[in-house]
Amino acid sequence: MKVLVIGAHPSDPFPANAGTVINHVNRGDEVILMTLTYGEEVHTEHYLGKSRDELRKILRENSEKAAAVLGVNDYRFLDFGDTPLIATRENMLELGESIQDIRPDIIICSHYPFRETHYGHDHGEAARMLERVPSHRVHSGKEGHRPKAIWFSANEQSMNHPIYRSPDTYVDISDVIDQKIEACLHTWNPWACSSEKLKEIGPPLLRAVGMEQGRVVGVEYAESYESPWLKNNIVTHLGT
Ligand SMILES: [Zn+2]
After folding, report:
1. DSSP code, position 6
2. How far is the CA of 134 from the centre of ligand 1 (A)?
3. Distance (Å, whole) CA 22 – CA 179
4. Fewer CB atoms < 10 Å away: N or C end of the chain?
5. pLDDT of residue 34
6. What's the gap in Å between 131 CA and the centre of ligand 1?
7. pLDDT tens-digit readout, 150-168
8. Ligand 1 mean position to 9 CA, how many Å?
9. How would you classify residue 226: left for phi > 0, otherwise alpha for psi between -120 and 50, otherwise beta?
10. CA of 152 to the centre of ligand 1 (A)
């Protein structure tokens, strides 16, 4: 199976999906990571003084190191610009064509398509772009492609919606939590702190979030998802 993981910023797939990615890699699936932006404006205060080119190089290298910890050597960078990420027609078509090129069986989005209350709005916007990306149409002579499922991550803390956090599927990551944490420490830094400080305060938070998800389904650590279009249910009337 071919799995495409898409996030708004290069570090996003690691706290949201690293355990799931490791499980897919371990069962022999092909996994490709893709970011919609370089994430130059997000949590990069600890790189102040570096040129834009230097910053982009660092962000890319750190992300590729983190991906390698998961056993993934294909991390693709789109360059839509972050904070704000904007779903222009050009960006939507480019995203669609990227999916047509890769032709994944499933797509995992690192985010949920709801209104976002902090971190700008890039995460919710990325998920909403994926909801309506025109990859199923012919563009530039490329055959359309419709993945069998799109999974939205439901463990993100930055969404604000009455029914937010109603995931229907949990991936058990108990056996790979240490590998997930190791990957996150290469690139994920929500506090924009030193790497020494990150090593101290990052792992407990990652464990706490994983435990919170795992508690719901009775495993030690989990990552949670929802796939609104996974099933075609045939019914005679709509119930509650
Ligand atoms: Zn992000």
Report:
1. E
2. 23
3. 8
4. C
5. 98
6. 18
7. 999 987 655 555 555 578 8
8. 5
9. beta
10. 14
